[in-house]
Structures are given as C-alpha cells and as structure tokens.
Amino acid sequence: MKQNIDVVPMLFFKNAGLSGKMAYGFWKMGLTQAMPKRSRGRNHMNHLCLLYFRLTPLCNLHCLMCGQQGVKGVLKGDVMRSESKSIVPLERYKEIVDEITPHHPIIYLWGGEPFLYPDLIPLAKYMVDKGLFVSVNTNGTFLEQYAEQIVRDGWSTIFVSLDAFQDVNDAMRGKGSYDRVVRGFAALNRAKIKYKARYPVLGVVTTVTNMNYLSLDQLAEASREFHLGVHIINLGTYTNNAIVEKQRRFMKEKLDTDIDCLEGYNTGFNEGIDGHKLYDILQNIHNRNYGHPIITVPALNPEKIHQYYSELEVPVRDHCIVPWCQANINYNGDVHFCADYPDYILGNIKEQSFSDIYNGDRANKFRKEIHACKGGMFPGCLRCYQNMLFGRKVKGF
Ligand SMILES: C[S@@+](CC[C@H](N)C(=O)[O-])C[C@H]1O[C@@H](n2cnc3c(N)ncnc32)[C@H](O)[C@@H]1O
Ligand code: SF4
Question: Per residue in 303-317, pLDDT tens?
C-alpha cells in the first residue's frame, strides 16, 4: 500500500464487508482528529469505532515476546490464575452489547486466549445476531475443535497469530502450535465450503521479532494454502528501561497512575533487527502476489523502518486518536483506552454503563493530557501498535 488508506481498495476485491468496515474506520476515525480541541462535554459515543474486549487473562501458550505471558510478561502463573477469578459474566457483557450496538463499533475479541473465556461462543453469537462486525484474535489452537460452530454462527473475521513457518514459529509460540493453526485453517475452510459461507474472513497476524524477521517471506509463501483474506505483519510493540521510567514519572505526575504493563514489552526481542535487511524483505513480500493483501503495521514510511528499530526514542507515528474512537474492556470489567497498557482505569462496567465511563471525567482527563503532549502522544507510546493503521494519511509498504 502506498499509504495507509489504500487498504480499503486492496481489501475490496477480496472481501467487500471487511473493506467496508475499514472505510468506516477511516471515516469515523478521521472525524475524531478534529475532536480534541472541542472534546469536553461532547458525547464521545458518537465516534466510538473500535471496541476491544480482552475477555480473559488465561492463556495456554507462553509466546516469548508476549507482554502478558512472555519472558517479561506481567500476567504469568499465579497472577494469571488469580486474575481469572474476576472475569465479567456473559449476562453483563450482553447488556453492554445492547448499549453499544446503536453506535456500530467494530468488535475485537482477544485475551489471553479468547477461547478460554467460558462463554466465548454464546457471546460472539449474541454480537453477530445484533448485526455487529465481530473479529476474534486467537492463537489458533482451538480452531479445529470449533470450526463448524464458528462458520455456522457467522463470525466476521478471525485473526490467527502465526509468526513464522514451522520451527521458527514453534520456537516463538510453542511446540506444535504451527501445525495446530494449519489444521484449524483447514477445518474452517472445509466448513465454509460445507455451509457455502463467505464468513469468517481468515487472517494471519505476524509479530516481527529478531527471531523471525529474516524468514518472513517463507511464512508469506506458506500462507497461500490458507485461503486468507488478509495477512497483517505487525512490527512489534517494544520499549526499553529509559522509556518505561519516563512513562512512569509522566503517568504519576499527570494522571496519578502507577504503571505495571509497559514493562512487559521490554523484552529484548526487537533489539538487533537490521532495519535495512527488513526493508528489503518487506519490499519483496509486498511486491509479490500471494492471492491476498499484506498489510504492514504500524503504517509508516518504509524509509523509516531502520529508525523504528535503531532509534527507539524517535516517534514513527504521532497524534494518537485512540481516546476519541476506541476503548478496551479488560477481563475484570475495567475500561481503558490503551489495550496493551491497562494502567489508567476509566471505570468498570460491573458498576457503571459503558457510556458513562466513556464520557466520564477520568476519560476526559486522559484525553486532555494526551492532547497537551508534544506530538499528541505520551512518552511511553513510541512503538504502540494500537495507533497503527488509522489516523492521519501516512505512507506505507
Ligand atoms: C496478546 S495476543 C492475545 C490473543 C491470542 N492469544 C493470540 O495470540 O492471538 C494478541 C496479539 O498480540 C501479539 N503480540 C504478542 N506479543 C507482542 C508484541 N511484543 N508486540 C506486538 N504484538 C504482540 C500476538 O502475537 C497476537 O497477535
Ligand atoms: S497465545 Fe497470545 S496471549 Fe498467549 S502467550 Fe501467545 S501472544 Fe500471548
């Protein structure tokens, strides 16, 4: 894509529904760019475009670079088990779905591993039946088991995490995980044929690390077999000690918040990536036709790819639009803007309506502080992928 907005026509011929949702995202999120200056007192629900539900802290894998379960993960072992006792019951989620449906946000279910939320299947079905666009991000290890049900229930999109071809993938994500994903895709494709279904659109999400970047083309080649609608290559969220400390001081001073989550991305798995080599590899991949669009995020000028890895203190995107059009509901009901860094809590859906939280004083305080920052981002936001595709027009691969 020459620029981020090109994903809309790129996806159109593969899947008009997904492309339409992307166009809606660009339009709605574009509107939000004019918002910050006149944000106070407005009903922000009118611009809610993307709502994440992090359904559970539980996961059956321990991918090395994962901020939750990886080497530096902040949700491992006993923390994960004790946190899992606080999950939101299905009935409360249904009430929230009823509340947000008139605003038609794209739904993104994730975790942990979303298939470990005990009521994933009825929740997704409830959302689909309400007419919402429901995408699920999964490690793919449960797909074979649930393929028929997923197709029958009409989920919109499944984004399966696959980081490399076979052994390299398994070194990052756990032994046997590649084959389980391949079997999952096969089962979904069989079920789509059986039920003559166009949905779900199948996607792969690849997180770039120093373990897989040299072999991204092998995975791109292998993905031809999966009948994908899209392959997203994510350059990876990462940080270092100095940035974590800067963010810690900033959040304490401006928002009276202690931070725990950014540290989970201080993993070392992005260090040593040769940006010039990665540039060549990505150019090659983007110049080939694999039968589905490939999108590299965050959308950034390819000339800046070297800087992405060699000068962590230099921003590659600016003016985060997330607080004006997105939110994440955490497994315990807490609502946050930053899906990966759930430190600043806006409120909790077990106690309040979603709109009261989204339009509340804490949400507006966050919007005011981020808007006041140079470049429209906090010090810790430098390599956040949530601000990755939408927003201002930028060049891309
Ligand atoms: C945390 S997982 C949760 C959903 C599910 N368990 C999965 O693996 O797809 C969400 C996505 O974040 C990606 N991810 C893990 N570590 C990351 C990192 N350091 N930077 C960016 N994305 C990362 C995963 O590969 C996955 O695509
Ligand atoms: S499967 Fe997902 S949540 Fe689990 S460890 Fe891997 S990336 Fe993290």
Answer: 889 999 999 988 887
Residue 300: per-residue pLDDT: 83
Which ligand has an atom closest to residue 383 CA?
1
Over pLDDT 70: what percentage of the chain?
89
181 C-beta closer than 6 A to ligand 1: no
CA distance 170 to 147: 22
Q: What is the number of other CB atoms lying within 10 angstroms of the CB of residue 135? A: 23
Read off the pLDDT band of 122 (50, 70, 90).
very high
Q: How confident is the model at residue 61 (pLDDT cuts 50, 70, 90)?
A: very high
Name which of 362, 382, 355 is nearest 45 in CA terms. Answer: 355
CA 68 to ligand 2: nearest atom: 8
Ligand 1, atom 26: nearest CA belongs to which residue? 161
- Cα–Cα distances in angstroms (integers) from residue 195 to residues 14, 64, 192, 386, in the given order: 19, 37, 5, 34
Ligand 2 in reach of 112 Cβ (< 6 A): yes
Contact 69 CB / ligand 2 (< 6 Å):
yes
Supply the pLDDT for residue 11.
66
265 lines ligand 1 (CB under 6 A): yes
319 — pLDDT class (breaks 50, 70, 90): confident
Q: Look at ligand 2, atom 8, and give the residue with the nearest C-alpha.
A: 66
Question: What whole-number distance in Å separates Cα of residue 11 and Cα of residue 295?
Answer: 10
**Cα pseudo-dihedral 99, 142, 86, 336, rounded to 10:** -50
Q: Is the CB of 162 under 6 A from ligand 1?
A: no
Please give the distance, rounded to the nearest whole angstrom, from the Cα atom of residue 374 to the centre of ligand 2.
Answer: 33
- Cβ(208) to ligand 2 under 6 A? no
Q: How many residues does the chain have?
A: 397
Judge whether residue 283 has pLDDT over 70.
yes
For ligand 1, the distance from its centroid to the CA atom of residue 280, given in whole angstroms, is 24
Contacts 24+ apart (CB under 8 A), 282-288: 282/216, 282/233, 282/397, 283/397, 284/217, 285/216, 285/217, 285/220, 285/233, 286/1, 286/397, 288/220
Q: For residue 179, give the amino acid letter.
A: D
Nearest to 191, CA basis, from 146, 257, 233, 159: 146
Q: What ligand is nearest to the CA atom of residue 52?
A: 1
- DSSP secondary structure, 246-269, as one string: HHHHHHHHHH-----SGGGG--ST
Residue minimizing CA distance to atom 3 of ligand 2? 112
The reply to whether the predicted model has a pTM over 0.85 is yes
